[in-house]
């Protein structure tokens, strides 16, 4: 499954990066995580440079900068993922900014160039007036192929854990994705969503409707959750979708068109009228975005030229920044037929 950790997409640790001390904390956290993952010392040193430069850029240049540090795993190796998100000022000429010597703050201007050289993989989207999202991966060895899906979760202000969870799986040729929003907030909400992820991982291959039915049957001992499952079928050119409760699913076409997908009323584990599965056309360059009600649907891709061509993680980070609310847990998952 490429760079997607098995089952639950590791939530990681979020930092609000506004001072040099926090930037140092980001670097130390990345280094400790890499040690725990038994990454080689040479790669840990390179990861340290990437983390320090990315966090330092937020302190020097950005507004409302945040940064995520989390683990990545495949059956063969492990790595560390860093996602830096800010709300401005944005970069007018990204290619120029990537060159050593460019600076907007009177510094040496080597930050982005150093990241490019040391990271195993990176992607970035920046829009003047909106801000920048920079996603970086540092793997122990040669990086696996790019992911077809990526997701982020963030807890409500004041909580340390999120009641939202996102997950993906490939089983018997089926590419499926889950977004779960545990009822309420805090630990009990997180427990419901983590149970949904566990069941999602272990349930036999089946249609999205069958997977949602299995989730509903096994979440009765939890608070319950709003959740939805989507399946991307490249051969048929379709996305199949089934949901219970307030999970939003949208297919965005390469022309900026959008088509909402239907979830039925209910709470998985407690209340349901019926589970229905719907099919929607999915052209090769379209993307599927699923999110909890911790994000609003005001996001319009036509206001972000070129964004839909970026990696799923960069799209997810941009949507979380501009459509997420701090008054609720937030979870978003983005996928496409090909990375």
The H-and-E topology, N to C, reads as EEHHEEHHEEEEEHHEEEEEEEEHE
- What general form does the structure show? globular
Total domain count: 2
CATH topology group of the largest domain: Phosphatase 2c, domain 1
Mean pLDDT: 89
CATH architectural arrangement of the largest domain: 4-Layer Sandwich
The CATH homologous superfamily of the largest domain is named PPM-type phosphatase domain
Summarize the structure.
Helices cover 27% and strands 31% of the residues.
SSE layout and pairings?
Blueprint: E1 7-8, E2 13-16, H1 20-36, H2 41-61, E3 66-73, E4 78-85, H3 94-97, H4 111-118, E5 121-127, E6 131-139, E7 149-154, E8 164-171, E9 174-182, H5 186-202, H6 208-218, E10 225-233, E11 238-244, E12 248-252, E13 258-261, E14 266-267, E15 271-272, E16 278-281, E17 287-291, H7 312-323, E18 330-336
Helix pairs in contact: 1-2, 2-4
């Amino acid at each position: 499954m490429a760079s997607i950790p098995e089952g639950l997409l590791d939530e990681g640790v979020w930092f609000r990066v506004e001072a040099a001390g926090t930037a140092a904390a980001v670097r130390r956290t990345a280094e400790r995580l890499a040690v725990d993952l038994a990454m080689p010392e040479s790669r840990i040193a390179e990861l340290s440079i990437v983390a320090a430069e990315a966090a330092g850029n937020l302190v020097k240049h950005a507004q409302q900068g945040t940064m995520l540090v989390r683990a990545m795993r495949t059956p063969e190796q492990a790595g560390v993922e860093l996602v830096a998100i800010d709300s401005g000022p944005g970069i007018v000429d990204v290619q120029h900014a990537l060159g050593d010597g460019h600076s907007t703050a009177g510094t040496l201007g080597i930050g982005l160039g150093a990241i490019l050289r040391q990271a195993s993989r990176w992607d970035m989207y920046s829009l003047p007036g909106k801000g920048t999202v920079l996603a970086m991966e540092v793997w122990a060895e040669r990086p696996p192929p790019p992911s077809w899906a990526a997701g982020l979760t963030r807890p409500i202000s004041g909580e340390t854990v999120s009641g939202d969870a996102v997950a993906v799986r490939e089983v018997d040729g089926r590419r499926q994705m889950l977004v779960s929003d545990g009822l309420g907030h805090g630990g009990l909400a997180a427990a419901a969503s983590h149970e949904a992820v566990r069941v999602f991982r272990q349930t036999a291959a089946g249609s999205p409707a069958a997977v949602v039915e299995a989730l509903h049957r096994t979440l009765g001992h939890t608070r319950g959750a709003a959740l939805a499952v989507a399946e991307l079928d490249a051969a048929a050119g379709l996305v199949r979708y089934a949901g219970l409760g307030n999970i939003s699913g949208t297919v965005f076409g390469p022309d900026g068109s959008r088509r909402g997908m239907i979830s039925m009323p209910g709470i998985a584990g407690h209340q349901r009228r019926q589970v229905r599965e719907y099919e929607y056309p999915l052209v090769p360059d379209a993307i599927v975005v699923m999110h909890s009600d911790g994000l609003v649907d005001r996001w319009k891709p036509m206001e972000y030229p070129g964004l839909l061509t970026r990696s799923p993680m960069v799209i997810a980070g941009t949507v979380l920044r501009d459509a997420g609310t701090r008054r609720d847990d937030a979870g978003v998952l983005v996928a496409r037929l090909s990375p």
